[in-house]
From TrEMBL, chains A, B:
Stated family: Belongs to the isocitrate and isopropylmalate dehydrogenases family. LeuB type 1 subfamily.
Organism: Neoroseomonas marina
Gene Ontology molecular function: 3-isopropylmalate dehydrogenase activity; magnesium ion binding; NAD binding
InterPro entries (alphabetical): ICDH/IPMDH (IPR050501), IsoCit/isopropylmalate_DH_CS (IPR019818), IsoPropMal-DH-like_dom (IPR024084)
Name of this chain's protein: 3-isopropylmalate dehydrogenase
Amino acid sequence: SNTLRIAVLPGDGIGTEVTQATLAVLEPLAKRHNLGLDFEHLRAGAFCYRDTGTAMSEETFEKAAKADAILLGAMGWPEIRTTDGTEIAPQLDLRFRLNLYAGVRPFRALPGVPVALADPRARDIDLVIVRESTEGLFFSRDRGTVTHDMAEETLRITRPVTEKLARFSFRLAQQRAARRGRKGTVTLVDKANVFRAFAFMRGIFNEVATEFPDVAHGAHYVDAMALDLVRKPWAFDVLPTENMFGDILSDLGAGLVGGMGFAPSADIGDTHAVFQPAHGTAPDIAGKGLANPTATILSAAMMLDWLAGKGAGQAYADAAAELDAAVDRAFADGLRTPDIGGSDGTAAAARAVAARIGG
Amino acid sequence: SNTLRIAVLPGDGIGTEVTQATLAVLEPLAKRHNLGLDFEHLRAGAFCYRDTGTAMSEETFEKAAKADAILLGAMGWPEIRTTDGTEIAPQLDLRFRLNLYAGVRPFRALPGVPVALADPRARDIDLVIVRESTEGLFFSRDRGTVTHDMAEETLRITRPVTEKLARFSFRLAQQRAARRGRKGTVTLVDKANVFRAFAFMRGIFNEVATEFPDVAHGAHYVDAMALDLVRKPWAFDVLPTENMFGDILSDLGAGLVGGMGFAPSADIGDTHAVFQPAHGTAPDIAGKGLANPTATILSAAMMLDWLAGKGAGQAYADAAAELDAAVDRAFADGLRTPDIGGSDGTAAAARAVAARIGG
Ligand SMILES: CC(C)[C@H](C(=O)O)[C@@H](O)C(=O)O
Ligand SMILES: CC(C)[C@H](C(=O)O)[C@@H](O)C(=O)O
């Protein structure tokens, strides 16, 4: 098969550690499935900004944009900030510049990993937040106006992006329905009771919904959804939402299933995609080999699956399924990372997963 | 003692039921403590809009504004909307027009009421979200612009309101510290890593913090806070935040301690204040006598406490403490409302609390 080029941007802090662990898992997997993966390491992030004056050079951006997929660790560092006080986050630039409108964040309880809620149904959590990732409140990034007495940001929602986000969510629900053997449900999360922009968003969503009669659909106010994600998260399937809302709800979702170490993500557009753990650079544990690489490993599985969907071949889909299964089995067999009170560090976790590939 | 005038706006749906239940509890309490409370019932809400064309008449607004405090049930109804698709919510008008910048939402696990989290420390949850309630994203209410292809809203943060919000939060932490016998902590919840407006907010918060050396302070990104409210809510004390963030996080907080039926709130300004449950009008159970009145009863206790702080006298503070204790005792003794799987309806819950006043 053809060789696919993967741009690897490890980033800062534990980003480099979880990326290394993931590559160590991908190697035997690629061999077994005969995947032609060619990894190109690229530098970007807060330390890159400190050392070179730019968080991601144009050259790096071009290389990443030309790759078949982008695998990213984590970026940012509390003490390294731009002059307006915000942090260095070139992963946001990638989302905007590559039009990665669908921020796909699946949440599922892995076997053996403790869940936060007391209700036993919490083990059945299996939902996906689809965070719009190119506009919403984040449209305002770098555009906020600040005077001595007042600051303003602009939340923007457009029809084309909302249509794409909605179609993406309905298609995802169809795929999940096929895998899970039950009808899918898409629930838009908005604040249409108060804001015209969200009433606008809901209107477009309802229009698109008519194209997918096989998928159930509804809408929920964001505050009610925050409540329901605590009360009955097992009742939800696919949840498209605005950028800022998705940022908040996806951390909530991660908290339900063991924390950020278990929250993979994919930022997907019509042609490009970035795969990265939803967590940050974790300065408190960086460099200690303690970071849980699971979120990154699961993100890599999402990458293989996406590549398969882009025509890379069935071997990629098989490898993705096998990687997911290996992670499940590793935890079912007793793997316990430090974030859930265990003592298996980054390398040990990677070894445990690698050992179960094809097993 | 002087007579205090309380404007009572029951509103729509279960709003009228929980208000009636609360007044039934306040009556014996007022008698016992010799409180001179004079209740004036006023009409406002979605059905008022449907019937009269205005959700709250100017006359009603003037009467509410002249009262010593405002007790509100719940307002809004899914099918009754303004032409731009948003809901009828005159409670928001009250917040804006009376400058009720501090939306105080305390969360505490009542004895016997099941909490959502598996960790036993969840019974120690005792935190207060202070939702800024006059600007932030809600500044944009009625101001959003919508074209065929695009919609925009403006998030506004101002220095004077942020200073007031911060001072209010630090003073609240001081009062709580005195009651709880331990140092208070104020944690600002923002998104200063991405938005200039939130970097601006954090800067002002840190300035104000220097006025309160006896209170610990910190800041948290809103996504990380959504995670930590699931992971370790018992670690937090007072959490001031922007309007939209506070709306979301306070529903999450309610989910932790038994749901919206247990979430009181107070919208407080320099001179006026509105007390109301954080929940909505619950069309699904409205008119059935099933609504849990606890949030409204606890809101009424907050009202009495606030009136005491405004110089109404120690009897009001004593009555507030007694009302809180009566609610605790009622649930400790086995009161179980339908929202937590019990069969004690609105009137039964009110009776159970009333029976324990002074008990
Ligand atoms: C690091 C931060 C800028 C980023 C975001 O807010 O999008 C992160 O929280 C995420 O969810 O990917
Ligand atoms: C009903 C709604 C307009 C209101 C809000 O968003 O403020 C409610 O959710 C609240 O929290 O008081």
